[in-house]
Amino acid sequence: ARLVVLVSGAGTNLQALLDACVDPAYGAQITAVGADRDDIEGLRRAERAGVPTFVVRVKDHPTRDAWDAALTDAVAAYDPDLVVSAGFMKILGKRFLDRFAGRVINTHPALLPAFPGTHGAREALEYGVKVSGCTAHFVDAGVDTGPIIAQETVPVLDDDDEDSLHERIKAVERPLLVGTVGRLVREGWTIENRRVRIG
Ligand code: GRF
Predict the structure, then answer these.
(1) Rg of the chain's alpha carbons, rounded to an integer?
(2) Which ranges in the chain belong to alpha helices (H)?
(3) pLDDT tens digits, residue range 110-121?
């Protein structure tokens, strides 16, 4: 299967996918990595792995719709079976989601539907929950509202700050994302009344 991965930052989830894709039995190849900004480690990880990259910046487009169209075209050029938003910090537009309907997944650093949005780890900590984790889900038009594919939990410790909690979450998020993408591409999936079934 062909994957396009979208990133905005460090790209450690991308790296886990790049590493998994080395094994042909994994069943996927990353055909391109896209970003909404330059000069990020995520793009450098792709370049080091010999994977093509592209950057589509909001500020280079007159409107958000024009950005959405440009991102859609850039991703479509690689004809992905699955698009993986892995730390991509922009809300995908209507055109994008229509073009890749039902084939876009995201990883989120909280147990959805709790703490959607940009600061999932921080808001879980501030709320005072004792367990948090991460969620792999399909992307719909809302913010972190699409059908849930898989989740993993971590404890919240008394002396955590945002960084320590987020790092503990990311340690389980990377294998969850790799495992989830692998199962999706190898086994296929159905979604019925929001409930995702793999295989
Ligand atoms: C992940 O925790 C992702 O869920 C969140 O941002 C982080 C990205 O990490 N939205 P990385 O860029 O993959 O290292």
Answers:
(1) 16
(2) 12-21, 41-48, 64-76, 94-99, 120-127, 162-187
(3) 999 999 999 999
- Report yes or no: 101 and 146 within 8 Å, Cβ to Cβ: no
Of 157, 199, 166, nearest to 182 by C-alpha is: 199
Nearest ligand 1 atom to the CA of 88 is 10
11 is in an annotated binding site: yes
Q: Collapse the DSSP code of 42 into the 3-class scheme (helix H, G, I; strand E, B; otherwise coil) and give the result.
A: helix
Instruction: Take residue 37 and report the two structure tokens written for it.
Output: 């900004």
Predicted model pTM: 0.98
Are β-strands 82-85 and 53-55 bridged in parallel, bridged antiparallel, or unpaired?
A: unpaired
Q: Considering only CA atoms, which residue is closest to atom 7 of ligand 1?
A: 87
Task: Set out the domains of the chain in order of their start, with CATH numbers.
Answer: 2-198 (3.40.50.170)
